[in-house]
Write a structure and sequence with these properties.
By secondary structure, the chain is mainly alpha-helical. It has one domain (51-241): MetI-like (MetI-like fold), CATH 1.10.3720. The protein is 85% helix and 0% strand. The chain contains 10 helices and no strands. It has helices at 2-25, 36-45, 47-81, 83-98, 101-112, 116-140, 144-152, 157-194, 200-209, 213-241. It starts with a helix and ends with a helix.
């Protein structure tokens, strides 16, 4: 584990050092490609500008995750309980992911306005699919011997779901949740690009219009930190709930 962290930090250091060297040796203006040191300085010193927008985006992401879970958990359970429902809903689920998110975002802004509602729904649309599919695969992967044992003992489907299928599927669920939270920022930011009054996506559009590429990169750094933080939070929760 320690060697993996050392390797990751070393790789990141060499990438940033190479980027810094290119910016110093090649006369590139900052509005084309600012060096990492400038970006880091701006990300810290302009926290007064970035923080309010980051809080808006974080709220949209967390609410999107909650909405996605509220849809994905019962949906995966119903699809597992009834294969006919699974076969009926599967094409619609796939179609929801096949449509480019940029095509959905303007419609959501028209339907739900420029406030956070359209961004929350956009994030949920992206997040719910990997959670649903992973949880459903977890239910299906349950060992046949355990299924037969529970049936022989007369356990109802609800008891099988509680004591067998859910514990068995939890690792799959957390794998899907990790994928979902890692891409959650995409839905929120794209929604903010299409139409918003606040948020890091809105901030990036405004900074780009003024050729403040350093602020754009600083916002990207904050988004990356949020994504890594969400991934780490899910990993921490997984270790607490899936101790086996």
């Amino acid at each position: 584990m320690k060697s993996a962290w050392i390797l990751a930090l070393s790789l990141g250091f060499f990438i940033l050092a190479g980027w810094e060297a290119i910016c110093r040796l090649v006369p590139l203006p900052d509005f084309i490609l600012p060096p990492p040191t400038t970006i880091a300085l701006v990300a810290v010193t302009r926290a007064d500008l970035l923080l309010p927008h980051a809080l808006v985006t974080a709220m949209e992401i967390v609410a999107g995750i909650a909405l996605a879970l509220a849809v994905a958990l019962p949906l995966a359970t119903v699809m597992f309980a009834n294969r006919s429902i699974e076969r009926a809903l599967a094409p619609f689920m796939i179609a929801s992911q096949a449509v480019p998110v940029f095509a959905i975002a303007p419609l959501l802004v028209i339907w739900f306005g420029y406030g956070p509602a359209s961004k929350i729904i956009m994030a949920a649309v992206i997040i719910f699919f990997p959670i649903t599919v992973s949880l459903l695969d977890g239910f299906k992967s349950c060992d046949t011997g355990y299924r037969i044992l529970f049936r022989l003992m007369g356990a109802s489907f609800s008891r099988q779901l509680r004591y067998l299928y859910w514990p068995w599927a939890l690792p799959y669920f957390f794998s899907g949740l990790k994928v979902g939270v890692s891409v959650a920022t995409i839905g929120a930011v794209i929604g903010e690009w299409v139409g918003a009054q606040a948020g890091l996506g809105y901030f990036m559009i405004q900074a780009n219009a003024r050729l403040r590429v350093d602020l754009v990169f600083a916002a990207i750094c904050w988004l990356s930190a949020m994504g890594v933080g969400l991934w780490a939070a899910v990993g921490w929760l997984e270790k607490r709930l899936v101790k086996w």
